[in-house]
Amino acid sequence: QVTLKESGPVLVKPTETLTLTCTVSGFSLSNARMGVSWIRQPPGKALEWLAHIFSNDEKSYSTSLKSRLTISKDTSKSQVVLTMTNMDPVDTATYYCARIRGGPFDIWGQGTMVTVSS
Amino acid sequence: EIVMTQSPATLSVSPGERATLSCRASQSVSSNLAWYQQKPGQAPRLLIYGASTRATGIPARFSGSGSGTEFTLTISSLQSEDFAVYYCQQYNNWPGTFGQGTKLEIK
Description:
Chain A has strands at residues 3-7, 11-12, 18-25, 34-41, 48-54, 59-61, 69-74, 79-84, 93-101, 105-108, 112-116. By secondary structure, chain A is mostly beta strands. In chain A, strand 7 (69-74) and strand 8 (79-84) form a beta hairpin.
């Protein structure tokens, strides 16, 4: 069974750096044509893709957030890590990781709600 | 960046009736289009990919069509569990942009 699970802080202060971890099981981060994306959703709003990383270590970032995001993976630990610097209250959202299999996001994690507040 | 526009924003339909949701891309995405269903408090679930292929375990009442810039998701006979928000997403060019969603509500 393929699963993804997000973990990280529930609350961060403005200007702090957010670090989120996606732990996957049921597949390997080294599988060809597979990758993991991070996607977020502010309360009551639409989905926003943030970044992805593929098995060959190819990475891509949201144009508007590129300067603040870093994505990496540890294949041996089955983890994908996203860091977002200089957090702001507008970054309050549920953050999801999802598997990319040949294009679409076929399996999603349950999401983790992050609130940015002093 | 490709902009995805969904219509309508809200669709009110009675159980048992057909629902038709639309998605338009600002430029061609070929058939690299997916539909997701999201229920309150849950993560999105992949319904359709490749514009018309149902994902594993998705009932046959869900169907997708279209290519290029115009796409449609049809739910042939609405069940109570189908009332949710639906998003389209293109994956022809990264970033893989989402539409703003269509809320399907009970009439």
